[in-house]
Structures
1.
Amino acid sequence: MGEYLIDNNVISAYFSGSLSEKAINFVANVIDQKPNISLITEIEALSWVSLDKGKEVIIKAFIDDSIVLPISRGVVVQCVKIKRGKKVKTPDAIIAATAIVYNLTLITSDSDFNKIQGLKIIDPRTL
């Protein structure tokens, strides 16, 4: 398993080509290692492409090549800790908890994750 968990906003930015060249190269290297995504990210990614069949094929192939991490008992416990400590949307808390439980660095451009203690983050926009 790789050392990163990829958030949906990075997936959409990567496949739409809206990242810098350095960020695209970084994300491409992570994807080449067998990417990790949360079950929530799978749902979000598949919902994002619902109107575009070409993108849907690409995203489904990406998900098929990924390790989709489940919402385990440990993720639930960590999610509750996150939700009790901060105002965080449940899907984001699940993604953050998944990263923490599996000791992964979250690759995201969503600054809402910055307020979650113990979460390691890389924002590809800052590369």
Note: Residues 4-126 form a domain with the Rossmann fold fold (CATH 3.40.50.1010).
2.
Amino acid sequence: MNHSLRVNHKKLASGSSPDRDQPFHDISSWRTRFRRRGLPLLSVDTQKRELLGNFKNSGAKRDRSPVPVRAHDFRCDSIGVAIAFGIHDLLANRGSVLSGVSRDTPAFAAPAIAGCWKRDGSLRDGRARQPLILAGTGGGNGCRCRAWKTALQAPLRHAFDRTVTVAHDPTGASQWNPIEHRLFSEISKNWAAEPLESYQKILNFLRATPTQTGLAVTASFERTHYQTGAGPDPQLLRLLRLTTHQTLPAWNYTIAPNL
């Protein structure tokens, strides 16, 4: 009667928008336009939080025997948490990861982009300083987060001196953000089955991420503790120079530096 043991299939998306396909067409068009002009394409997102300690890490590695780890992943048994915000420069095939000890907040994400560009991008080409940022719709870089927009504008004058175009993926579609399969997937394969026992071990794995396409990854560490739930500064909100696009203005906008 066609009955057998089966597993659940994750195929039903919640909160799907009727405009789900349009953002992908817009992002594809913008990527082609920015690439032809030689302007930077930055894909950004936050990797999942990792518990530090002798805990199981997903994946498998070649070894003579399995590594014994704790039977349960209790927060009280860890020495801390690590959260990584990644930036992938699509044209230069360079990745930059800022590893923090706190939370995924706009105050953590936005300065990471400016710091990455000042450290790597400006040295490569000081003229191409008007980037397209591809981001997800949630977390510290969410499209509805006003603090993300004000936090992104603050370092623009020092890092770019020009406008920044931001395009968000549709809700529930962040897995198609280029950083997921070009940087984060390579990082996960590099430290597969390795217990992440210290921040230094995480940084070592990040910096030694190998790929066949020549991806170069830099990593830095941030000890600042950020509080969640903090709203945007009212003064910065009044000074926000944000221009929404005609197509899907909630997901696509341009931010100019506050002069």
Note: The chain has one domain: 38-60+77-256.
3.
Amino acid sequence: MNQDTWQAEQFEALRPKLQSVAYRMLGTVGEAEDAVQEAWLRLNRSDEDAIDNLGGWLTTVVARISLDMLRSRRARREDAAGDWLPDAIVAPEDGPEQEALLADSVGLALLVVLDTLSPAERLAFVLHDMFDVPFEEIAPIVNRTPAAARKLASRARQRVRGAAPDPDPDLGRQRAVVDAFLAAARAGDFEALLEVLDPGVVFRVDVTPEVRREVRGARDVAQMVLSRGTRFAPHARPAIVNGMAGVVVHGPGGLRTAVAFAVVDGRIMEIDVVGPR
């Protein structure tokens, strides 16, 4: 096996991890793929003899690329109105992808919170808390000392703990709550919806740039579901959305909308509706 073939095989073996790093940084599948592809191009232009740890080197490169992309995106969006939701990663509930997706998943609710962090905070949190990268390796990426990088991750961690729900880890319990929600929506049963919605539930919709909204509170969310969502509920099919019990709704022309749920203590705390990208 020549060096180029070995390098390509090693890169492909590392691709899932690199894709995970980029997706957590960027929240979009397309941009994550672009970041990983750019890392491959940089690897081809690099001095192979100078790379002691290929996995660590590629993780750092993908992190740097993602950081630059995130900063550029922030600059373009700084005057934009409205929120946006990350891309949803969807798999059939009993499909072959399920085991891998559940083992390496990050909920949409957490990604929404990560998008409120500064790019440097997000990088420090993702690399250290999600991938165990030492602060000594994170520091040069964000042009900070290791102590300053540690503070970035600490600030991010506090924000995440205060804002992101901690969903029930049992997929079966999640599914039971989601099924109860769908049954209530199909039946138009307002009181049954209130039973499965947390009082502080957040409902976010990002279907198109023109259809973006956020509704908070169980009664307001239940009213919106009954006024707008009842006609879609019969078409909802079970799926794994970012590693959690969710549904997909197929519309005209095969367009697919993913609905992610964050279930905590038997009630739904967040619902995110993400349209096709």
Note: The beta strands are 90-92, 197-208, 211-216, 236-241, 244-250, 256-264, 267-274.
4.
Amino acid sequence: MAPEIHLGRDYEGVKVDLFATGIILFTTMTQRPPFRTANPNDPHYSLIAAGQCASFWEAHATAEGGEDIFSAEFKDLFEKLMSLNPSKRPSIVDILAHPWMQGAEATEAEI
């Protein structure tokens, strides 16, 4: 659930769905969720909510045996989708135009 739901605030379905899309994207890339809950008190989500994204990515590099498997473009898109402030999340149009979405398609050998 998006942080606005955890915090008991009014929410827009589209913004909540965009947040969920980011979770799915991260989980697809790593086979694990990015954090336990999208509550600003969660140890991992709190890093994103506080703008300490470098620490968030360091924690996930540790889970990958110390390797940073995420491109700068992926990190940028994910961080935007995870914004604590729903009005700062990108629109569908913004997402489709994002450099990560414009990258090369994976070949069958890479999948």
Note: The chain has one domain: 3-97.
